[in-house]
Amino acid sequence: MRIVLLIILFLLGQSVVARAGTTLFPARAAGADARTLVVYSSLDEPVAQPMIEAFQAAHPDVAVRYEDMLTGEIYDRIVKETDSGARTADFAFSSAMDLQVKLSNDGYAQRSDLPMSARWPAWANWRNTAYALTFEPAVFVYHKPSFTKEKPPATRAEFVDYLKRQGNAVYGRIGTYDIERSGVGFLFMARDQEQFGDIWSVIQTMGAAGVKLYSTSSAILERIADGRFVLGYNILGSYAADWASRHPDLGIVLPKDYTVVMSRIGLVPQAASSPDLGRAYLEFFMSREGQTIMARQLQIAAVSPDVAGENTATTLQEQLGKQLRPVPVSPGLMVYLDQVKRARLISRWNEVLRLQ
Fold it and tell me: How far apart are CA 280 and CA 208, in angstroms?
């Protein structure tokens, strides 16, 4: 009955939901020799589906078990399963750059020498083990109807000036990530501290303006789109672009003083059940076809130097040059995992926000 059910679902072109957070995409050429690729990913399954379907079109004898989970869960499961001698995912894809690099650095990921490895940007490749596969700026987001008489802030200095000038008119209508609960929010703040000597005056001004903190992008973007908020600071550009495509009142600014760029990192775990399948999926992600799907269908900017056009690192770098500050895939990311340094940054963040 199970085989019959899978065949029926295959014919219907639908996926099978195995349990909360896990989706099974049956092999298109169902048969006794069908194999299953296991993916642990922090990218929402509906967003990832075009990439999965395209991969299966090229590999019709491969089923995909897609496990959608939080970034910390991906790290914890790979470490726990590997240390216990069990098998783990064949491919891990996560926006927690620091945790992915730690997996690589600590021996939980294996080397993947692929056709695109030598051509991949140096900042986006750590020893052919951990690859940055996306290019996602941190942006200012604004409510367009609130800026009919002046332009929205385009630098951090302008952001501060706007909040001070508007005073009570914008009090409680500014949003950003809660760096204690949002991994990407913490990463952006840590990079701000490295890139901008006066960053704490920005944080203090936001605190005085009654900034609201959230752990997700959607909570902030929803409030800007409907006018409850006027500005969002350091919002992940890929999510902002998706919202802007569906909400015309939501605008985006890439900060002109500097724009931090983060990436989602893909790797093949050391204890993968089928590392050849994990490597095949990573290779597809890095291919011209995969990166084009990333840019056009997933609405996330592609990294590959072979992919041009809108929503690609190549185009953004041509247009903005040194304004863009990509976060390098390197052991330097693990500095953010040092608990003492992390606690110190969060403590200062909370202290400065309270100075209202």
Answer: 51
Give Cβ neighbours of residue 350 (< 8 Å, ≥ 6 apart).
none
Residue 82, amino acid: T
Query: Interhelix angle for 183-195 vs 199-208, to 10°?
Result: 130
pLDDT digits (tens, 9 = 90+) for 289-340: 999 999 999 889 999 999 988 889 999 999 999 899 999 999 988 887 888 9
Tokens of 203: 């944080």
Cβ count within 10 A of residue 183: 22
Pairing of strands 62-68, 22-25: antiparallel
Cα–Cα distance, 239 to 218 (Å, whole number): 8
Local structure of 207: helix, strand or coil: helix
Amino acid (one-letter) located at 297:
Q
In angstroms, the CA 23 to CA 17 distance is 5
Distance CA 225, CA 322 (A): 30
Rounded distance between C-alpha atoms, residue 174 and residue 212, angstroms: 6
Least confident of 14-28, 132-146, 177-191: 14-28
User: Cα 280 to chain center, whole Å?
Assistant: 21
Q: In sequence order, which residues have a C-beta less than 8 Å from that of residue 252 and are 6 or more positions away?
A: 139, 140, 141, 142, 237, 240, 241, 244
pLDDT, tens digit, 9 for 90 and up, residues 237-273? 988 988 999 999 999 999 999 999 999 999 999 999 9
> Between vectors from CA 229 to CA 206 and to CA 345, what angle results, nearest 5°?
30
**pTM of the predicted protein model:** 0.85
pLDDT (tens digit, 9 = 90+) per residue, 59-108? 999 999 999 998 889 999 999 999 999 999 999 999 889 999 999 999 99
Is 9 a residue whose pLDDT tops 80?
A: no
Give pLDDT, residue 20.
46
d(CA 308, CA 292): 9
CA distance linking residue 156 with residue 100, whole number of Å: 30
DSSP string, 87-128: -B-SEEEES-HHHHHHHHHTT-EE----TTGGGS-GGGEETT
